Amino acid sequence: MNKYPLSLIIGLIILGLIIFLGILGPYFIDTTGYEVASVMPSQEPSSKLWLGSDSQGRDMLAVTIYSIPQTIKIALIAGLVGVFIGLLLGLISGYLGGNTDIIIRILSDSIMTVPGLAILIIIATNVESMTVELMGLTVASLAWMHPTRTIRSQVLSIRENTFVKVSKANGLNNYEIIFYEIMPNLYPYIAACLVASITGAILATVGLESLGLGTQDDHTLGTTIYWARRYSAILRGQWWWWGPPIFFISLIFIGLFLVSIGLDTFSNPKLAIASKKNEILSKKKYIKQELSSKKIILDIKNLSVNYETENNNLYALNDISIKLGKQEIMGFIGESGSGKSTLANALMGLIPYPGFISNGYINYDNMIISEFNESEMNSIRSSSIALIPQSAMNSLNPVLNIRRQMVDMLTDHGIEIDKHEKIIEEMLISVELNMEVLDYFPHQLSGGMKQRVVMAISTSLKPKLIIADEPTSALDVIVQKKVMNTLYKIKNDLDCAMILIGHDIGLIAQFCESVSVIYNGKIVESGKIYDVINNPKDHYTKHLINSLPKFGV
Hints:
Blueprint: H1 6-28, H2 60-96, H3 98-112, H4 116-125, H5 132-140, H6 145-158, H7 162-169, H8 174-182, H9 187-210, H10 221-230, H11 239-267, H12 269-283, E1 296-308, E2 313-325, E3 329-333, H13 340-348, E4 355-364, E5 367-368, H14 374-380, E6 385-388, H15 402-412, H16 417-430, H17 447-458, E7 465-469, H18 477-494, E8 497-502, H19 505-511, E9 514-519, E10 522-528, H20 529-534, H21 539-546
Helix pairs in contact: 1-2, 1-11, 2-3, 2-5, 2-6, 2-9, 2-11, 3-6, 6-9, 7-8, 9-10, 9-11, 10-11, 11-12, 16-17, 17-18
């Protein structure tokens, strides 16, 4: 992955060329022509006057080159001063909190409610002799609120991090924590605020200058537009008077916009990763085909799930291929981090950021679901493929009772209201829970009851494939057996296929017909459960089997 986003590079090149023209232009072009009566007035562009002249006898090329650095100077003064003030206030407000935060927040929010241009007009009209520097400071007076709010919001998040608490424990004072620990994490946001402030400053400056409230003694791109408007250049067809300043202002805005996008990508890796993901996906060659047998419901071919980071290309799954029968129970076993849950998430279209399917496909019931968008995946989740997630305690909403959570799921899938009660009753019976559970909240249930409620919710629409991701985690042995028997009963009642994911090879052996052993994102061994248990080929499989407790003399 390129370290610097392309938009950032292009934006900096555009701005660099404009600055280069403004700074070095006077060394190649005589800019004394910007003065009144320097050339013949109202001349069209020619070989001698590349951009013609205005009605006051000024060479428009000289005026434009002279105006560019003055406009940039105003924007830099306004942007730097505004961001400096906003950075200080944002750091203090976000870190100290309390009354200090309230005062700064009320001040910035109150000023933001007033039309900024109106305030600037009032300030500018009361300045007797407006200079470039004064114009920059005038605009800066309203350029600090947005940086203050942005920096404050980031500091509020950063100050809760463990490294800040460790810094306090190590004896660092507030000054050292704010400027040495917190501020380095804000550099991308500071840069983004500076770009936004400079953009806003140029917009405000041009607005004021177009109204005749600009500098009296210096030419800027905005004052050039003002004089063109005042002397009716548009009505007189003198496009060379107002065209160049508008062109360069637009070019500056384009450059700043591209830099802003680049900084967003730089500070938010998700944007860069999404770009890389699209690049990879555009090169993928899908081979769509029907399932090889009517008895097969799931065919995964060469599936790879990539977790794209800024510097590395990590694979949670690498070239996974399996086939699952319509009534088959297949187990997936491996250590934590081997890729088991990633496989479950891939099947459900729920791979978390920053992961994505980078190769291969998933053929479910003659549908290439690995190519489905979010809307298409929603149409088959729960109704056709159900996920029973691990850690039931975290899967249920703690502030909603069980009835509400079951009804919400049925409603989301368009099930008619008059059918809700019957479906809910059937599913509670299938998991051996009584109707009283519906009025309970999750914290009122035991671990085993929560797991069975999750099973009931997940399978209430009678899916063809159940994915059980460590359904017995954090449960004691007796409850584990009861939960697994319930899950096995549900599977048989629905006559569906099931993928059982876990760490316990003994548990997998009791309930599965076939098993795949995953290690480091790859299937190292697969086959019928008793073949793998009795005659393991891979050394990792042998270690898993040897980890089982042995009883006897």
